[in-house]
Amino acid sequence: MRTDSPLLSxxxxxxKYRAGxxxxxxxxxxxxxxxxxxxxxxxxxxxxSGSGKTSLAHSIMQLLPPAAGEILFHGEDLAHMNAxxxxxxxxxxxxxxxxxxxxxxxxxxxxxSLIEPLDHFRIDANRQRxxxxxxxxxxxxxxxxxxxxxxxELSGGQRQRVALARALVTEPELIIADEAVSSLxxxxxxxxxxxxxxxxxxxxxxxxxxxxxxxxxxxxxxxVGVMYLGKMIEIAPANxxxxxxxxxxTRSLLEAVPVPDPAHGKPVVLQGEPPSALNPPAxxxxxxxxxxxxxxxxxxxxxxxxxxxxGEKRTTHNVRCHLWQE
Amino acid sequence: MSNAVLSVxxxxxxxxxxxxxxxxxxxxxxxxxxxxxxxxxxxSGCGKSITAAALMGLVPPMAGIVKADEIMLGGKNLAQLxxxxxxxxxxxxxxxxxxxPLTALDPVFSIGSHLSTVIRRHRGxxxxxxxxxSVEMLERVGMADARRIMQSYPxxxxxxxxxxxxxxMAMACRPEVLIADEPTTxxxxxxxxxxxxxxxxxxxxxxxxxLLITHDLGVVAQTCDRALIMYCGRIVEEAPVEALFKAPxxxxxxxxxxxxxxxxxxxxxxxxxxxxxAPHPAALPDGCHFADRCARADKQCRILTPxxxxxxxxxxxxxxxxxxxxxxxxxxxSHAD
Lengths: 326, 337
Known about the structure:
The complex is a heterodimer of chains A (326) and B (337).
Chain A: E1 8-18, E2 26-37, E3 42-46, H1 53-60, E4 68-73, E5 76-77, H2 83-92, E6 93-96, H3 100-103, H4 110-120, H5 126-139, H6 156-168, E7 174-178, H7 186-203, E8 206-210, H8 214-220, E9 223-228, E10 231-237, H9 238-243, H10 248-256, H11 295-299, E11 305-306, E12 318-319
Chain B: E1 4-17, E2 20-33, E3 37-41, H1 48-55, E4 64-67, E5 70-73, E6 76-77, H2 83-89, E7 94-97, H3 101-104, H4 111-123, H5 127-140, H6 146-151, H7 159-171, E8 177-181, H8 189-206, E9 209-214, H9 217-223, E10 226-231, E11 234-240, H10 241-246, H11 251-259, H12 299-303, E12 309-313, E13 316-320, H13 330-333
Parallel strand pairs in B: 3-9, 3-10, 7-8, 8-9
Antiparallel strand pairs in B: 1-2, 1-4, 1-5, 5-6, 10-11, 11-13, 12-13
């Protein structure tokens, strides 16, 4: 374990599925993605459905084997770990899903669901487990009398807090939240956002926060990556991305977010839908919808270019677009 | 705009729940004017979807009791129609689209067959005419490849396309009123923007008034002319969107607005959560249902139910049900009052 390396480092990751009715049809869900997450920082990942966000998350969770590239946790490649370190790493990376009703067992009480990870990772003796569970519950702002209840008896916001509590109970260094606030009402969503910021501040937990809502991402993220059809097309510090987005797709996404202010003009609507990942277009994948695309975009895939001047790796602003300078 | 196409007076819905009867919609009154988009806004469980179901006459008698003084649509009181007459009205004069089109479209029928069924039933067209009208409707909702789409099945389309098909079906008979229940919640932002634009444009050109049910205040700001804010089965505030967003008078509306994350170029405005939880519909407190979560609440709020009262501001009607409403900022009242 090297101390100078980022907490999580994803290098040229490729994830593929066998898909489609034809034998041999391969869908490339994630195509050469690289990024780092520092300890205690929040990385926001955005993109439309089908852009590969969840496949990327599942690959980091070791639920999907990468077809190429590497995933380093504390500088160690997940693929080449021995069983003991892999188990330890799994404990240190936890996943929270969008729909807690689908990820909490309907037949288990909240207490049973929260104790299960402790059982699995052999954390604490039986007697201490209850106390640990209660502490975690308090952290996420839930009452202890919930422990004997079942998921269907809780509200959506309470369930999502239970899901977060279950991720926290193993004291992870990184939590991957996959659309964890997307299905919540705004008043509840605001509370979870506050909670995530507290956890980062007080416990130094890092987050990979996946959301399609850029307004939520701005509340949370230090650094943001934008995915389109399996590629990271722009990656930048949050304040740069929200003020100086360079990729036309990022700009369209920002433009499409409904603004809660009637005085704000109507959005310029991006036409069309993302092309199929089974048959991605040549050149820049976005050229079929890009209002500015020129001949070059249809033929040559734009390389990743750094567009700001900084020596610091964590503040670089990279973009894959031929026209970023215009 | 006083030409109400839909006018609802004292609509209440009670559901049988475990702990007892729950009044999930409580004496709702509002009017929908010709050609407007009216937002019905509130959080999960506030009663907005059951309101839609009640308006359409879709609450099963086994599940709940619907009462209303009147639900007037084009001279007919829907509250007094029997099922046979309601069937004639639904789909032709008042239509509805849902959040999840996949559950509303039948997987074994093609898109063309979905559309022509509606058109043949309500417009009495023959097979060939109905087919032509179906293609026309699909083109109206921006599907360039309408003929191919006619032969597709629901699972072959993307979420955005399915929702367009739903809109085409619902609008095929040029209804007076369209109820859209969270139509874009399951869609990506870019698709959401396209679908909302389509919906608004179509409503305008067909003269259909739209009741847009949503929890997303951003969608309300961009799509609606007026909005109703609903909390625990009651309307707590009603106003033109401009006034509502600039100067909400009900503390719940203000709380909602403070909880919405918004992209801003002037640094991050932190969201603020509304403290506490909404009460269970079967155990609603006396007085104002929001009192326990409200910073302005006093004794009166916990005893006396605040009634809706209208205030005229800038020539438009702003209504709220609150004993201690927030005052208008002076900048906004300059030429009212």
